[in-house]
Amino acid sequence: MNPAEYLRLPYSWCFIPSYEDGEFSGYTSYILEFPGCISEGENLFIAEENLFRAAYGWIRAALDLGQEIPEPAARLYAPKYNPRHPLGGVRNTRGGIWMVEMSRFDLIVICLLYCILGYIIGKNW
After folding, report:
1. Structural domain span for residue 87
2. pLDDT score, position 102
């Protein structure tokens, strides 16, 4: 399999909102099954695109080194979802950070909903 084929599998794509000085500054993202595969972006679209590129490079490097690519573990554990968070997710109570676990399809649907909502209410998302 090539890296693009691996990325079609249901890996756990996680997106965490980042804050600097109390203001939203974008998202930190990672794939749970790929140690060290971390990226960031100023919105969900960019964070997802950057994470895809990072994961592609991660898989390509692992294949070049002859390492085995981990299987998707997306459903091996069930996080406790918090209904008060707009995307669901797990709250890290120590740091006050929200971690959101979702598939790429979920992410695309949420991004489209944000764009539609932003268009309807007249804000630039």
Report:
1. 3-121
2. 59
Number of domains in the chain: 1
* Total count of residues recorded for the chain: 125
Q: How far apart are CA 96 and CA 20, in angstroms?
A: 13
Q: What is the 3-state secondary structure (H, E, C) of the chain?
A: CCHHHHCCCCCCEEEEEEEECCEEEEEEEEECCCCCCEEEECCHHHHHHHHHHHHHHHHHHHHHCCCCCCCCCCCCCCCCCCCCCECECEEECCCCEEEEEECHHHHHHHHHHHHHHHHHHCCCC
Return the amino acid letter for 55: A
pTM above 0.70, yes or no: no
Q: Give the domain CATH number at 21.
A: 3.30.160.250
